[in-house]
Structure formats: structure tokens, C-alpha cells
Design a protein that fits this description.
The chain is mainly α. Helix content is about 45%, strand content about 5%. A two-stranded parallel ribbon has the order 1-2. The radius of gyration is 18 Å and the shape is flat.
Amino acid sequence: NFRRRAGDEGEQKNDAAPEAQNNDIPPWFEIYHETSQNTQVWQEAWQTTEEIFRRMKSITDEHQMPLLVLMIPARYEVYPEVFDAELQQYSDKYPHARDAVYNFSFYRKKEIEMLTKLSIPSIDLYDEFHKRTMKGENIYMPADGHLSAHGHEIVADILRDAIVKRGVLKW
């Protein structure tokens, strides 16, 4: 399967697939494109992101406020068929996009590593969203990557439970 790299959930790498050049894929897929993920631009972006989180942690610690990062997966992560459809839709403009190797879990894992390093608690919703989409639940709006009303309810319930569990609020 061309979409995912070995190590992503449930997919095998197609070693025969040639790497596409970055300008051969839609720009909004770049975060998932394997060769884009270690470029200087992305390294600088990760450094900036880490500094922002470091500052947030410092400010919340200084004011004795809790900090919790909620990680909401992209629609492509839980609906790979949407990714496939977009690749097909843009195949005329980006003919080599189907040959590229994509890694949907890279940035999520990198973010978790960064937050762990900074001692910032986080909730990764990927597993819950994946489980629910496998049951046929519609978590995202059909036309774009925004959460549906049901998706917002799921997030609210998980966030409420996490806040109560951490003793921030009594419920």
C-alpha cells in the first residue's frame, strides 16, 4: 500500500514505490510526506513549537495553573479513504503523489515525545477516534477536516473526564 510506511498502524511499506519530490505532492500533505519530515524547515518548526510549549509550561507553572494538551488527529489519520480520494482528486496536478511514502503517525509521535520531554501532560485522541470510526461513527464533517457535533461531544466528554481525574474541577 503506497499510503503508509512500516510502523504506521496496520499498513505495510511498499519498498518498490519511488520517492516523490516535495513539489510533486499537494502542499497540505507535506506534513505526512516522509522526506519532508526531516527538512530544515520542519526542524525549525519543531524547535519553535517546542519553545512555545516550554513558555506555556513556564507561565502555567509560575501561576500554579494546570496545563493539558489535547491532541486531535487529522481526518486523514482516522479516515485513510479520504486521503486516498484526495490523492485521486489531485492526481492530474500532482501525478507522483501516489508514489510517495506517507507516514501519518510521525508528527503525532514526535509531539508526544516533545511533551513528555517537557513534562507536559497530554491526551492523544487517535486511539479513541480510530476505534469509533471503525464502528461507523462520524467524527468529522464530511466536506472538510472539522469535527462534527458528535466529534465535539466525544472531545468534551474525554476532556471533562481528564479535568475531573486531575482534580482541576469537581464534577
